[in-house]
């Protein structure tokens, strides 16, 4: 099965949903990025910056065994 992400007007949701269900598909709802609090968004930004630094080799990431023992 293939997963397809589409953005449609709210007014067309029922028509598209019925079309997909008639063909055996499933509708998976995903929360919008607008649901993030300001604090969550800042943490996400910091995490992304840290991941980039690890990827560039500028800082060292934690080994998995240290994560489980914390």
Quick rundown:
This protein is an all-alpha fold and 70 residues long.
Oligomer status: single chain
Strand content: under 5%
Radius of gyration: 20 Å
Total beta strand runs: 0
Q: What characterizes the major β-sheet?
A: none
Distance between the termini: 39 Å
Number of helices: 3
**Average predicted confidence as pLDDT:** 85
Secondary-structure element pattern, one letter each: HHH
Fraction in helix: 40-55%
Low-confidence stretches: none
Secondary structure class reads mainly alpha
Shape: elongated
Descriptive overview:
It is a single chain. It is elongated, with a radius of gyration of 20 Å. It has a domain of 32 residues. The chain has 70 residues and is mainly alpha-helical. The mean pLDDT is 85.
Please outline the helices and strands.
Blueprint: H1 13-22, H2 38-56, H3 64-68
């Amino acid at each position: 099965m293939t997963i397809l992400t589409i953005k449609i007007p709210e007014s067309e949701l029922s028509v598209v949903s019925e079309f997909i269900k008639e063909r055996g598909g499933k509708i998976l709802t995903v929360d919008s990025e607008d649901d993030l609090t300001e604090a969550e968004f800042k943490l996400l930004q910091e995490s992304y910056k840290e991941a980039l630094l690890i990827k560039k080799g500028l800082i060292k990431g934690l080994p998995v065994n240290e994560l489980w023992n914390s």
